[in-house]
Amino acid sequence: VEQAPLMGDQAEQMMTDVEDMARLVASSDVAEVHFLGQKLIPDADNATIVIVFTRGEPLGTLKTRELVDAPLKKAHDIFVRQHNHASRETVKEGLDSLDIDHVTLGHYQKVVRRKLLSLFQKSGFKVTTFP
Questions:
Q1: Less CB within 10 Å around the terminal CB: N or C of the chain?
Q2: Grouped pLDDT means (10 residues each) for the chain, 131 residues
Q3: Do 7 and 35 touch, CB atoms closer than 8 A?
Q4: Helix, strand or coil, per DSSP, at residue 89
Q5: Closest C-alpha to 106, from 33, 49, 51, 56
């Protein structure tokens, strides 16, 4: 079964869910969280969460040489949540190379993925990646 890549609202919802998951790990008083549209009940059975990113051409569909305008603003849209003041601290490191008018989509994706990995690790997740 082939799935279409996440776009727009789906990608934004996924990012919100990821942030909810990070808050769950950081806060012991959270009883439940929604992840990818499903209620997630934490347990001690070493659950696994898999996030699949679209691959760049030639093996994937991502056009890595396309330009992303205002990349830092777009990264802020991913990582800064209106009702989570601590999220403003998230963008203070690791996104410096996006502070220009535009970058390639390949570079943008690499920086955002690296930032996500960093956030997961800081939140206590055991994180592994593969090509």
A1: N
A2: 54 68 55 65 68 80 91 92 82 91 94 89 80 65
A3: no
A4: helix
A5: 56
